[in-house]
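Input structure tokens:
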């Protein structure tokens, strides 16, 4: 085993796998909630917001997994969907990478939470 930094390509590939698993669960929960709990609109809305946030994190992680160095913004890469909210939360003006709590909720922290 061993230790490696979260900003390595390998770490982001592992995080992508974790996020994809979380997204499957969220989409399954959302489908179920729409069918079974359609009367509980706040719950459905909450799941939709969670899915949107998770997709945003996935886009950021995907970009970072393909980056040459652990810095820069998605504007440096043409195939990234431009998302102003993601740029504000995940990057500083000079391109430094930030790690907000959403990334840890997706399995980015030590021990991967409940991933």
């Amino acid at each position: 085993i061993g230790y490696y930094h979260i900003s390595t390509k390998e770490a982001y590939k592992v995080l992508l796998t974790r996020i994809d698993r979380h997204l499957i669960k969220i989409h399954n929960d959302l489908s179920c909630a729409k069918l079974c709990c359609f009367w509980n609109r706040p719950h459905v809305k909450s799941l939709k917001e969670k899915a949107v946030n998770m997709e945003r994190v996935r886009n950021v992680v995907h970009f970072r997994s393909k980056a040459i160095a652990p810095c820069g913004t998605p504007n440096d890469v043409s195939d990234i969907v431009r998302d102003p909210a993601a740029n504000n939360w995940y990057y500083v003006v000079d391109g430094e990478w930030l790690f907000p709590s959403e990334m840890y909720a997706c399995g980015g922290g030590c021990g991967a939470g409940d991933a």
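Residues 77-81 have pLDDT under 50 and may be disordered. The first helix runs from residue 9 to 36.
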